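Intended use. Records like the one below are meant for learning the mapping from a protein sequence to its folded structure. Do not use them to infer anything beyond what is encoded.
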Amino acid sequence: MTASLPWRSAALIVNTHSRRGAAMFDEARGRLRAAGIPLALEVAERRPQHMRMRVEQALREGADLIIVGGGDGSISGVIGALRDKDCAFAPLPLGTANSFARTLGVGVDLDHAVDAIVGGRTQWVDLAELDGHMFANSAAMGLSPIIGDTIPHQLKRYLGRLGYLVWAIWTMARFRPFRLQIDCDGTERNCWATEVRLLNGRYAGGVELSEDAELDSGEVVVQVVSGRSRMRLAIDWLRRIVGLAANDLAVFELEGQRVTIAARPPQKVSIDGEVLTRTPFTLTVHRHAVRVVVPAADRQPD
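Structure written out for the chain above:
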């Protein structure tokens, strides 16, 4: 280990069920070893439901750096275990969208992720809690959870983001809007809606959705696509995918530390792409809950 590295004992835990995890595990391990990262635990986990158990094992064994390879769902499923722990967290972007890695400035490249671990810095980020589920990046209700819950695994695995787009077009034809009731730190809204996005980070689905969402602000951004028009929802997503500012007055945002949402009919809720609960729910924010590895200020990815 080089003298500049602060890590005494690191754990590498990769979800090899993720899109690139199986193919990239050996490469990731080799690059981390070559960079001098002291890997005391190396796990290629094929069962995503066991990822958190592996992280908890690493914490018990004294790891001061936990490196998790996989997609946003893998990260969301384990990051709550590090809440208020004296241990840093580093993502390896091996999934489809890698939204959390994008928000951190790590990007989607394995080399950039390793560079951040070797020569970057750490910062505290918030965690949001929704019905007992912790997440660092985003949650959603409406069309997005339906897509994530029903997309064929092979379509997602081999086509990646293109597969999501194809399935979104297929799913939208059968999707129905819902009646939304929301209370965000005492501000109440009642309206028809086609999608609600709860953003702790700027990205979701690999797309930048809000410039205002910050991982350490102490608040989440609640972004609502209101109305009953599925075409309006499609246009909103298209504009954001190509990087144009949203200009539809039917899309509004609220910011708060505590958000209560109900819907008629009840809606599925996805957390970083994994459908985990349904409405109604209450979301709260835990300020500065986890320390994460980010690139040095002068070494942002391209």
